[in-house]
């Protein structure tokens, strides 16, 4: 079979494999390995070892460019200290609004918010 014929045959098989999504990837790989094995077994006994090595090398070279999924660095997930400044500002504003409706709850939230603002400000200044 000529190179062009082999390419057309291979291309047709690839298109058929891509069109047929019902066949799982694992089944497709098993089918292809079976085809390679049958071609090697059908070859002359003197050429089988060389063909087997060639098939192994080609598969290894074809798969090696595929990057393995890498695990994200643990440093990227390192916990940062959360600054309570933003939460304190939010609670202070919320408490001021609630102080008009429910005075004790609103004043309590304003007090907690102011403590968080002071704590956040100290953290920000200590960081610099």
Oligomer: single chain
Helices, by number, come to 5
What separation lies between the terminal Cα atoms? Answer: 74 Å
Note the main sheet. none
Structural class by secondary-structure content: mainly alpha
Q: Output mean pLDDT.
A: 79
Which percent band covers the strand fraction?
under 5%
Helix content: over 70%
Number of strands: 0
Name the overall outline: rod-shaped
Low-confidence stretches: 1-5
Nearest-angstrom radius of gyration?
Answer: 34 Å
- Helix-strand pattern: HHHHH
How would you describe the overall organization of this protein?
By secondary structure, the chain is mostly helical. It has five helices and no strands. Helix 2 (25-42) runs antiparallel to helix 3 (48-63) and helix 4 runs antiparallel to helix 5. The chain is rod-shaped, with a radius of gyration of 34 Å.
What descriptive keywords fit this protein?
disordered N terminus; mainly alpha; 5 helices; 0% strand; single chain; 128 residues
């Amino acid at each position: 079979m000529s190179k062009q014929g082999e390419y057309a045959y291979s291309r047709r098989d690839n298109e058929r494999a891509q069109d047929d999504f019902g066949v799982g990837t694992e089944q497709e790989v098993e089918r292809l390995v079976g085809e390679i094995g049958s071609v090697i077994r059908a070859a002359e006994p003197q050429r089988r070892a060389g063909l087997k090595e060639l098939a192994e090398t080609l598969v290894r070279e074809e798969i090696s460019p595929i990057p393995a999924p890498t695990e994200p660095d643990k440093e990227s997930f390192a916990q940062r200290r959360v600054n309570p400044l933003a939460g304190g500002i939010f609670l202070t504003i919320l408490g001021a609004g609630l102080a008009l409706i429910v005075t004790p709850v609103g004043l309590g939230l304003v007090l907690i918010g102011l403590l968080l603002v002071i704590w956040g400000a100290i953290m920000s200044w200590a960081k610099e």
